[in-house]
Amino acid sequence: MTPRSPRTAxxxxxxxAVAGGTAGLTGLSxxxxxxPTTPFVSELHYDNAGxxxxxxxxxQVPDGTSVEGWSVVLYNGNDGAPYGSAxxxxxxxxxxxVLVLDYPSNGLQNGASDGLALVRGDGSVAEFLSYxxxxxxxxxxADGMTSTDIGVAEDGTGPAxxxxxxxxxxxxxxxxxxxxxxxxPGLGGEPGDGGEPGDGGEPGDGEEPALDAxxxxxxxxxxxxxxxxxxxxxxxxxxxxxxxASIEGWSLVLYNGSNGIVYGTIPVSGExxxxxxxxxxxxxxxxxxxxxxxxxxxxxxxxxEFLSYxxxxxxxxxxASGSTSTDIGVAETGSTPVGQSLQKLDxxxxxxxxxxxxxxxGEEAEEQPPVAxxxxxxxxxxxxxxxxxxxxxxxxxxxxEVVVNAVVxxxxxxxxxxxxxxxxxxxxDDPATSEGLFVYIGDPAGAEAxxxxxxxxxxAVGQQVAVGGTVDEFFELTExxxxxxxxVCATGVDVPAATDLDLPATEEERESLExxxxxxxxxxxxxxxxxxRFGEVGLSVDGVLRTPTDVAPVDDGAQEVAEQxxxxxxxxxxxxxxxxxxAKYLDGEDGxxxxxxxxxxxxxxxxxxxxxxxxxxVLPDLVEMPRPEAPELDADGPRVATFNVLNLFNGNxxxxxxxxxxxxxxxxxxxxxxxxxxxxxxDLDADVVGVIEIENDYGDGELSSIAQLVDALDAADDGExxxxxxxxxxxxxxxxxxxxxxxxxxxxxxxxxxxxxxGTAATTDLDEFLVDGxxxxxxxxxxxxAQTFDIEGEEQTLVVNHLKSKGSSCESDGTRTSDAYxxxxxxxxxxxxxxxxxxxxxxxxxxxxLLDWLEGSPTGTDxxxxxxxxxxxxxxxxxxxxxxxDAGYVDLIAELGExxxxxxxxxxxxRLDDLFASPSAVDNFDDATAWRINSVEPxxxxxxxxxxxxxxxxxxxxxxxxxxxxxxxxxxxPTTPDTxxxxxxxxxxxxxxxAPNGRLVPLTLDxxxxxxxxxxxxxxxxxxxxxxxxxxxxxxxxxDVQGSQVDGFEVRAERDPRGDGRTYTVTVxxxxxxxxxxxxxxxxxxxHDQGKGNKGKGNRGKAEKGKPGKGR
Length: 1112
Hints:
Elements lengths: L6 H13 L5 E2 L13 E6 L10 E5 L10 E5 L6 E7 L4 E3 L2 E5 L11 E6 L5 E7 L16 E2 L3 E2 L8 E4 L5 E4 L44 E6 L10 E6 L3 E2 L3 E7 L4 E8 L2 E2 L4 E6 L9 E6 L5 E7 L16 E2 L12 E6 L2 E7 L30 H5 L11 E12 L4 E5 L14 E5 L8 H8 L7 E11 L2 E5 L5 E4 L8 E2 L6 H5 L5 E11 L3 H4 L2 E4 L7 H4 L6 H11 E4 L5 H8 L11 E12 L2 E6 L22 E10 L18 H18 L3 E8 L9 H14 L7 E2 L16 E7 L4 E3 L8 H5 L11 E10 L2 E9 L37 H15 L11 E6 L7 H8 L3 E2 H5 L6 E3 L2 E3 L2 E5 L7 E6 L34 E5 L13 E7 L10 E3 L1 E7 L7 E8 L15 E4 L3 E5 L8 E11 L5 E11 L14 E2 L9
């Protein structure tokens, strides 16, 4: 069922991001030490979603303590060295008794195991703390010391304005919002500071009895509100405290059920001295995925209760780590009315029902289900629906009470209402006004669900009804709300015929049909992202929608393509029955895929959440597009491919270490992910494969993700680990065992049987490729990896790339002034740009630097046949790709293939994954394609989404979110050897030497030789005599044949006076490239005399039959 809350879709995206491995604010630390009684670090913030903002370190200083000369020194966890400049506490702002050091957005590093030292005035270290692990300092005041991990972390997806703060028991926790500049709860004074001795107030005042703050004092969570109709408002949790108890120092720790991590903490407090009290605590952003939950944690860290909604899960961090939540059994949806909540009554959770925040549950009288106002009279003068709808995009009668009299065209109990439409006689003459309207009774899943469904069931299709209500624009859908009962004025009325929804259709054309029955035809499935969550299927005419900047430049046509995409598309909704849509369209073995087609579908045209929705009377069947079993290449040569493997992380490599920074959250998920990737890589049948988004743990050797991927590929090849696959070891390109500084890296796999490394694996200079304006690594573009291979006799260099994504910000504070940001592509800012997303300038810069780097032959070979492959995070007509094309590189997928897309986002497809060939390498390839096994599959099939039957896709399908790309190299056809000999003739002049005077006579040779290969044969020439070279008579001179093939031949004008003349024979041998041989001869005669009886006519230009060679 499509929820009526626009925030729910956003929550799904957030949950998907978390499921993919990006956490928000993680963990509660163990109590590792008591709070110090000297100056100490009390709070910090270093990372949040988007551009880091408001980074700070807070130091609390006990009263009367001097901090003269004290400082804070920052440490990098990669090399243990200090970074940045030390900040003295004299630089700090003093706010409410604490000292605050503010830092720029790139001031505090957010990699693993970074830290800080609080240094006394004498140079000794008061505290050496770290986050995301421990480190050993190399240099600086903490040299040789090992840090203490505070046990909590921020990882770049949490909200701005949150922080990590120290608690009274010495533990650290996530605080949202932060308490920057104020003393943290429980840290207000020295231990035991309780006032002057004997200070008991006025005479006769007795001390108040101590309250029970122990974990078993009976306090419990009694109410929660987290989701409602429209934008979520008034979200809160309530804790009920029995009389005589206190929850001072307690907390509510919020958990994301997708990966079991903490995403926020609410400090709570409250005392119940005279009666049971309920305390409500507001929190904007309580997640509404499936499932999420919270832990109620006592001041000593004990988990009092661990509860969840919409399912249960196991915590992987924080105070409830390892515990499985208890599902409260009720839930709110995106259509829960504002002002309702879930409540615990007499030990049982109920709702949604009217919220009673701050009031002990059970003290209010239960409300009775609302009774519908009486139905209007069929004779009452109705308002025409066309007047209610009006000619514009909103009703001119919004907020007014009206009565309409129309025909019921569609009953939708799961939407909480029904559609009505004017009969033909009441249709107006204005084509801009709609004749249909949605009548909303109420929430079909709320507290009054039974009553709502009963009222919806009181009407039937074909009835003419009179119904009154208030005109409302519910997120731009014109509808009737607060409606009366329906008066049935007639039955068996002809239902108005459905109007053709002729796509493409403009906003105005759709508005004129809102609420009416329409039929759309000849549609293609173009979006399945929200099918599992909302039961929605994106449809379009004229094929799948293409990403605008994959078709046209952003400043020359892309906006027009975006507008055309809107006009071509429509969302097939589920008429509220999400389970029916799931069952029909989501089946890992044989479900819907992008490119499937729909002949026609009929239903009411509705609107919600910024989308036009077609609510079908019957869910239509799909004409399925078969899954491709293998890449469709017309050539059989060696193959080069690249494949984004979607965060392939193997934990610690030994079955432990899950969840990691990204990727699979468990061994089972990792094995499922690995199985799909191994099948896909092997089925590519490629000789060299670049991989993208693999864990950056080369330094782990045989336990690294890429090494274990190779082992799995080998085992899948023949059932045992052998040497059928190998990976390129970056060697000297690594720094601290990593390729670059990101958590993910690129890699290269190859088959040693057909491909041999002949170069030295290389990457770009780290500083040039990654720095931001401060000169520090900014995790922007993952470093490329290049290697040259001999692939069946042809040298080819593959360069694997992964440019910065569009999803997270690249903006920095101030301009970029580093020397590295000079030359082509240099820039000062990098904002989020319409249609291009974030970081376009960063990607352009990377493309320029990449091309510059390749000019230096980085692998150490003379080969200039480059293929740039990988995930460029830029579509075909975007500036980074144009930089590469302008340098002469050719897009093989577009040039040799069918310009196939590789990625689906926001209802359109485009190609982010490419193979670009350098000018000298283009002729090495004869075909290229994208193997569409992933981008066409529903998102729900991915390993981290909802990996349970029936949502497991078989084999290579849905093994990633990107499609692999592959190109075939040119090779001679070995099945047709050349066995045809060349043709050769020779003619010699003179052919007869008349005067035997003993002189040398030069010969002129006219040779013609051809071969059917088109290549010139190799020619060899020889000259022989049929008489001895010397001793024929007394004056016989030696050296009758002189010269060479290069300098020319001469023969002596003499013969044996006792014979009948001499014959010189010239032999020409022609050999083609395949070894086939042919010969031709001609003669020169020296006659005994000029008589007719003597030898004299010679053998003029005789060609002998050629002999076949061995072929090639």
